[in-house]
Each structure stands twice: as C-alpha cells, then as structure tokens.
Amino acid sequence: MFFTNRMWNVPEARGISRLSKLSLRSRDCDKNNQVLDYGNNTMGILDKSISSLEMKLVAARAERESLSGKFNISKEAKKRKYFMVIGINTAFSSRKRRDSVRSTWMPQGEKLKKLEEEKGIVVRFVIGHSVLSRGILEKAIEAEEKEHGDFLRLEHTEGYMALSAKTKTFFATAVSLWDAEFYIKVDDDVHVNLGTLKKTLSEHRNKPRVYVGCMKSGPVLARKDVKYHEPEHWKFGEVGNRYFRHATGQFYAISKDLATYILINQDLLHKYANEDVSLGSWFIGLDVEHVNDKRLCCSTSSPRGCELKAVMGNVCAASFDWQCSGICLSAERMADVHERCGEPENVLWTSNS
C-alpha cells in the first residue's frame, strides 16, 4: 500500500460557484435595497407628518395674529401671561341673565380691568352673530358692548343646535387671543366664585393636559321627541348605552395644551348634538387627565348645597341647579344665590396663587 502526505483538493466547479456567489450577492443587494426603501419610505412619512404639523402650527400662529389684530388686543396684553380665561356662554335673548351676573360675581368697569392686570383673570360674555347681520339683535348687542365692554364676539352664527361649533370656536379664539394656563366655559345661569375657582384650578397648574369639571355619563337618547336627542346614537353602541365620561356642560375648564389642540385641529373635530359630549369626545384618544371636582357643581337649592358649604367654610367654586341645567330663574335668583353662597370679596383680591 502506498501512503502520501499530499492533500488532494476537490476541483472547484468554477462556473456554478461564480453563479451562486453572484446570486447570493444579488439577494443581499435586494435585501439591502428593501431595507433602504423601507427606511426611505419611513423617513418620507415622518417628513410629511412633521411638515404637516409645522404647517398647522404656522396656520395657528397666523390665525392668532389675525385675531389679535381684529379684537384690538394690545402688544402688552399679547405678551402678558394670564391664569385663566372665562367665557360666559350667552344668547341674544339673555340680557337679564347677563345683568344678573354683572351685578353679582363678575366685576365691572375698572375692577374688570384690574382683575386682568393684577390677577390674570379674563372674563367675557361669549356670543356669535345673528342670521341677520344688521338686524335688531346685532344692534342691541353692539349697544350693550359699548356700555360694558365685556363681550367676546365669535365668528359663529348663533343657534341652540350650534353649541358644539360655538364651544370649539370659543376655545380656538380664546387661546389665540390670551396666553393663559386655563380656559373655561360657563353658562350665564351659573354662579361662580372667582377667588375660589382660581384656588381650585391652582391645584392642577403643573398638569399639561387636564380637563376639569363635574364628570357624568348620561344615557344616549335615541328617541327624536326628547330633549338632548342624539342623532348619531348608533355610534355609541346598542340602544340603552351610556355616553363616555365627560364634564357636564354648565361648567368645565381645560389646560392650554388642550385648547391649543382644539385650535390646530378644529377643522377635523367632530360635533355631536350636545356640546359637552363633543368636548369629551375630542379628548378620548389623548393622554388627558380627567378631574371630577364636585366643588364645580354645587346645588343652590339643596339643604346640603352651596349655602351650607359656605357657612362651613368650604365655599363652592361654581353652583347651579341640576333640574334646571343652571340656576332656576337665574335672572331673578342670582342675587340671592350670591348672597347665600358667594365668597367674601377679599378672597379674590388677596389671593396669591
């Protein structure tokens, strides 16, 4: 037998090997190209999203500047930081209600100006326009504005079924005009203690996205012949279902970030029949803290309502009657409610929060 130390190499199949290598390299290139294409597509989508957001922010700033000029907001006022902006929702027919508010919890004249400059609290009656641009209703509001100077006129046509649109327009307009920590909507038949309200909201001033009010979850009303009928009831599931949790419409407050969100996205936000439901729906998919505070919905007629709380030193921030969705006969009763449930005047002017 013959042995040798020589190693015999298997001849390389040159053609097959070369083709295999080319094929492998080709597949590697395809994979790399796919990764690059995916990366490029992702970057493209991100670029478009960022560009879209930038355009919305530019549009929001432009709208803010436009509104500032339209409403004659001074440069000093635009630079000033406010604590809260309160919009009192009102209607053309509610002159007596407005006067009852002016004579009780809403400062007038120089005190209203002092409230803004020293306490950072802006209070305005909020109203849009009538169908007839130069009708008697418009002229009456213009005369009232000249007398009191306490209106915020919205680019909005008034109507009960248009409250969701009015709410959206109010927040978008308010955040454009005043740089505040909180923006509040309250009805003109609700009693408010401004000093107590400021103290109450101060507990939440470090929360960027906060939604404060008396939270409820009422039934979705499918019947057409009832008050608060919801035409889009089918969106909320089967008959008999209840709405998601949201703040009752008599009073609610939102932080600046949420008001800005409404401003930027106002064209996309859906309006349901009820404005409080609409507002709650706009925040459903957001990282928002819901605060249920019963000091914002005290009763004016219950034995354990705002009067008893005031006597015990636990003054309510906002009060009304649930059965009337506001203070019953508020034009006649607001003064009485203010006397029984109102905070001492020095609470507002001596508060440092």
TrEMBL record:
Subcellular location: Golgi apparatus membrane
Top enzyme category: transferase
Documented EC number(s): 2.4.1.-
UniProt cross-references to Gene3D superfamilies, sorted A to Z: 3.90.550.50
Pathway recorded for this protein: Protein modification; protein glycosylation
Pfam family, one: DUF4094
GO cellular component: Golgi membrane
Protein family per UniProt: Belongs to the glycosyltransferase 31 family.
Record's protein name: Hexosyltransferase
Organism encoding this protein: Arabis alpina
